[in-house]
Design a protein that fits this description.
four-stranded antiparallel beta sheet, single chain, 2 helices, globular, OB fold (Dihydrolipoamide Acetyltransferase, E2P), 24% strand
Length: 276
């Protein structure tokens, strides 16, 4: 999927690119599969800002995506759509009974294709099987962590995981980050690579496109006063005055490990993503 470049009629147009949307074949969402989406602007249930620089943005509706894939009947692809809530595209399916559902659209899935879910499904993009029935070396996405809970891993545009081993009743999967993780064989995964693989090459070109996404400006700490940020103060452009960059509250900002050393799921990680 190539990106579209623009003539430099304005400074923002000079560097702006957009997706070509060649894979998208359906313009409007299925009305029975959309829900209201409330804006929280980075605030928790107490109204306190827990994620900074969020707010505004275009009004969008949530598309209800089927991550469990429990329907084992044949389902036909009747359209591929843009989803404002995620980087990947979504595909609209219709089964033999006429029931419709959304799935994450993998590379190569197009209108008219038929996909299946279940242990007897073929190894082809869009089909969902238990990991026990998937050959070693296969590219997969939409991976469950707990059987029946629904896919939680590998759902972003252009990513894929690889099944590298099956032993002792469990599988080893290499995730896009490079981490190798143990996953139960009765967990489901979908064959193929997630679509919209050119997503990371898109250049926004202007600040306004970030605002449309609901992301507000971020002010650098080095331009603040000392009372507002540890990096602030000094005459002219000054170094931060610390061994490394820190947050506004003084915690290390780069290379600071936040994972609990006694986390229950540590035993499932065979290789860390940053292991040398």
């Amino acid at each position: 999927m190539p990106t579209i470049k623009f003539k430099p009629t304005t400074p923002s147009r000079r560097n702006m690119t957009t997706p070509s949307f060649e894979e998208v074949t359906r313009k409007s969402p299925e009305k029975s599969l959309i829900a209201k989406k409330k804006k929280f602007s980075g605030r928790n249930s107490y109204g306190k800002i827990t994620v900074r620089h969020r707010g505004g943005g275009n009004k969008v509706k949530y598309r209800i995506v089927d991550f469990k894939r429990q329907d084992t009947s044949a389902s036909k692809v009747i359209g591929v759509e843009y989803d404002p809530n995620r980087s990947a595209y979504i595909a609209l399916l219709e089964n033999e009974a006429g029931k419709r559902s959304y799935i994450i659209a993998p590379v190569g899935l197009k209108d008219g294709d038929v996909v299946y879910s279940g242990a007897g499904a073929d190894i082809k993009p869009g089909n969902t099987l238990p990991i026990a029935n998937i050959p070693v070396g296969t590219m997969i996405h939409n991976i469950e962590l707990y059987p029946g809970k629904g896919a939680q891993l590998v759902r972003s545009a252009g990513v894929f995981a690889q099944l590298i081993a099956k032993e002792n009743g469990s599988a080893q999967v290499r995730l896009p980050s490079g981490e190798v993780r143990i996953i139960r064989l009765d967990c489901k995964a979908t064959i193929g690579q997630v679509g919209n693989i050119e997503h990371d090459t898109v250049k926004l070109g202007k600040a306004g496109r970030k605002r449309h996404m609901g992301i507000r400006p971020t002010v650098r700490g080095s331009v603040m006063n000392p009372c507002d940020h540890p990096h602030g103060g000094g005459e002219g452009k000054s170094p931060i005055g610390h061994p490394g960059p820190v947050t506004p509250w003084g915690k290390p900002a780069l290379g600071y490990k936040t994972r609990n050393a006694k986390a229950r799921t540590n035993k499932f990680i065979v290789k860390r993503r940053n292991a040398k």
